[in-house]
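REQUEST ID: PR-0412
SUBMITTED BY: lab tech R.K.
PRIORITY: routine
TASK: structure prediction, single protein chain
INPUT:
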Amino acid sequence: MEKQIKSFLEFLQNEKKLSDNTLQSYRRDILQFEEYVENNKINYAKITQEDMKKYLDYLQEIGKKTSTISRNLASLRSFYQFLIRIRKVKHDPTDDIQSPKVEKRTPSVLTSQEVELLLEQPKDVDLKGTRDKAMLEFAYATGMRVTEIISLDIDDVNLEEGFVVCRQGSKQRTIPLGTLSLKALKEYVDEARPVLIKNDSEKALFVNVNGKRLTRQGFWKIVKYYKEQAHITKDITPHVLRHSFATHLLQNGADLKAIQTMLGHSDISSTQVYMQFQDSGLKDIYQKAHPRA
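STATUS: complete
OUTPUT:
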């Protein structure tokens, strides 16, 4: 694939006469795609339309903006059209894939009160309740993506030091755990998980009632169930907990760069979307005090 990428970039430079900035943009998009297919052991020449859709979903998962995903799709479409032209592939996997609509969307965020209400719902009276409480506390305490949480192994959490190591491909980041999250997690690991797992060889941190690694769908159902129990009208998904984590940190004075690191955003522009939720009092003070406001 490396050779084909080199040929494609030379074609854009020599034949299409694209600017350096545009070339670099193509290069970044294609190299990121190359890393993805290699990590997932996908043959770029035999990639299916379904695989391509999963890649676009992955870009969304890692916090890429809709405009960035749309540009990535355009870059890959040009790349595969080029590969067809030089007869390296027979089909374009981007065919019939619609570019996502670029629109300014405000992330859905819970208030601190709504978070408290949601986290109060799981009752510590049975194994499932203990697990669910630990999981919801953990999701809000870490801001991790649902796919990252369900991929965690028991060894990724250090209960003594109070942190979790999140691994994403070749990258990893360390996220601290708050007091309440740590307390709920210790209770789950000490009392519920050993009973839930059917086999001591099971590595997953969060498991279902059958003792197997919890699935993405299972996580979503749990969040939806407790949202209904709390009678919260807002649509709540695991990603809403991630947005709320970032927003509440920012509102309470956390540094944007630190939030970017904890969220695992490669580009700080993805993190800056939370700036709009900063304390509106600052805006009021500015409007009243600045001579040119």
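NOTES: The chain has 13 helices and three strands.
REVIEWED BY: pending
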